[in-house]
Give the backbone structure.
Amino acid sequence: MEAEAADGPPGGVEAALSCFSFNQDCTSLAIGTKAGYKLFSLSSVEQLDQVHGSNEIPDVYIVERLFSSSLVVVVSHTKPRQMNVYHFKKGTEICNYSYSSNILSIRLNRQRLLVCLEEAIYIHNIKDMKLLKTILDVPANPTGLCALSINHSNSYVAYPGSLTTGEIVLYDGHSLKTVCTIAAHEGTLAAITFNASGSKLASASEKGTVIRVFSVPDGQKLYEFRRGMKRYVTISSLVFSMDSQFLCASSNTETVHIFKLEHVTNSRPEEPSTWTGYMGKMFMAASNYLPTQVSDMMNQDRAFATGRLNFSGQRNICTLSTIQKLPRLLVASSDGHLYIYNLDPQDGGECVLIKTHSSGTTEENKENDLRPSLPQSYAATVARPSTSSASTVPGYSEDGGALRGEVIPEHEFATGPVCLDDENEFPPIILCRGSQKGKTKQS
């Protein structure tokens, strides 16, 4: 659920946003630019409510928020080997870590934090930021492709297992052991993602024509969807809905595809005695005698619904979320636009565009501007008098942080309460600064 641009042109569309990502439960949008970063709440169709903005760190190319908490992870082109973790309501840096090469991607849930380099993956315990494992036996991964289950009760990790084929390595983030390898595609991987419970894993290859879904942890193929046949595309985003009923894929084309995860039973009811029903039976029977590739193509499911974009060739990410009690398709693009569509979960078809939030600078849409205007610095945040007493949400949650001495609710983390106060910041700052160069277990 993230898009990055390491080398975008100076100015123009691609320079508007250097990165953008949805959080783990698709309730927040984070964007990074040359000036800093911003966080938005996705609770309304009509407007984007800015949760936080900062220009303390310029040239941000990775920004990830932990669910709706005040913990945010930022990486800048000015220090591409350094990960910075902030508590944005308090305006404090929780910790920073430096690595042996440039950071390509970061994934996190309530128990684990993954840092992906081109030839290594680092797994941290997010409660104290202790480095638990360094995975070194990985093929070169120049795009930083990896996935982490947002369900902290399993914390499965997936990453490419080959330079030439679409092999996926499934890794257990708890036991810190490899679970299995999945021969997902003939070509190299372009996208991988877990569903919310961590029981399914979806993948797409660089061809972008076929999307497959596998069971976790045994790696059995459950579904196979065909995105298209006429042309190869670059899949830029692949994401399950939170209820795991739908799978959404966006690419460098003008069409976003939504697939419905449902199995058709083998014992189909008798087709009506019509010409259409007769031809359908004939095609199904003929598929048994056709070459495997043709037969597989005939049996692959097509998109349940689509969303039409008014552009192609731009970096974008998509997600499926429930906003104001209705299912929506959201697409964020590199030029600073957020498109919101209605999704009919029963009949599918073409999704209807209902709102576009742009990065204009007129008075009318300033509040919806995705580009940084005058975000507050951390120094300004610290200097501002505390308003925590007005908070109505307890703990480390949507209000942006915890009150002094308050205990993080257990549902925020896998085990045990953690105290959030000025003297004992989460995670303890004293344990969180330093370089990660062969400090812990390696594999």
